[in-house]
Amino acid sequence: MGHHSCCDKKKVKRGLWSPEEDEKLINYISKYGHGCWSSVPKFAGLQRCGKSCRLRWINYLRPDLKRGSFSPEETALIIELHVILGNKWAQIAKQLPRRTDNEVKNFWNTSIKKKLISYDVPAIPTLPDMHCNGNSEEGLFSLNENPNWILNSQQDQLYLPPPTPNLQGFDHGDLKLEQTNYGANLVQFPPPMAPPSDSSSYDPLWSLGYKPHENFDPNQEHQNFSSSGATQHYIGDKLIGPSIVTPNYDEDPLTVPMIPNPCEIINGNLCGMSYSCASLELDPLARLPYFLVGCNYPYDPHVPNNHVE
DNA sequence: AATGGAGCCAACCGCAGAACT
DNA sequence: AAGTTCTGCGGTTGGCTCCAT
């Protein structure tokens, strides 16, 4: 493997950073800022290339980083943003304060994507690239392009995303999501599950099938869930909402989540909403095929439907 | 206790585009 | 305008840790 040009000029250290190196970098940047990254290692006294310093700072040393596992809200947001943005990790990460693109990318690749694969979830195209012409396979994407399924890592259950946080200031290129609660009402949610009693084993994916308000902390940022009313969402100039009003599962626990037909999303809005889900099936996994009917996606009819334990 | 596989994540690489000369 | 350098991004990988056998 070759080295970046900035690393060719002199022998630079590679691999994991030592605490001493971290300290040097932190001290330098906190005093002088990073300025030109290529000159940082020289002035900071590091045998690293500028690129490595930049990466270390951005992904690890920055004081405003939030470390640790992703919250259910963050997870849901990642998945929903992935619908729109695909593997644009930097843009997705911008909507997750104090998270890095590397973190988001790793989380997706290790946690979410893997579970999707394990369930053989059919691929669903991202918005900009969908070709919903009824019989085309062009719209099929790799599994990591499929954002609509969330799996419960503890219970091996697959759920649809819950309402998601604000996307304030979401303006990346021609993509524009206005107002709040993007995607909050794109889907309806399965009946609530009892939370695990052992909070120490809490999994960030766990509550994704859970009623939003039960985990809702009004004092915490990015939890501005709203369980009522329609919300407008835009991609470019196109309105992709308002969408479905989240039902009250207390009243109707058998309501099957309604999932937008990708064909309708790509057409610029969600009007029509010819949802195919009419079953009273409670098993989230069993719902998978229904999502695909509307767009004639090939799917595995043998998707397991009794993984709920 | 030893070992091998899987999972996870920090860090690297190559590329593209922006900025600069 | 052309060449060079810098920055940012996405994909990939190496190595550490955990866990099952």
UniProtKB/TrEMBL annotation:
One of its GO terms (cellular component) is nucleus. The keyword Oxidoreductase does not apply. Residues 9-65, 66-116 form the HTH myb-type domain. CDD domains: SANT. Residues 9-61, 62-112 form the Myb-like domain. PANTHER family: MYB DOMAIN PROTEIN 55, TRANSCRIPTION FACTOR MYB26. Keywords: DNA-binding, Nucleus, Repeat, Transcription, Transcription regulation. InterPro entries: Homeodomain-like_sf, Myb_dom, Plant_SW-associated_TFs, SANT/Myb. This is Uncharacterized protein. GO terms for molecular function: DNA binding. Pfam families: Myb_DNA-binding (PF00249). It comes from Quercus rubra. Transmembrane segments: none annotated. It comes from the Eukaryota. It is found in: Nucleus. The keyword Transcription applies.
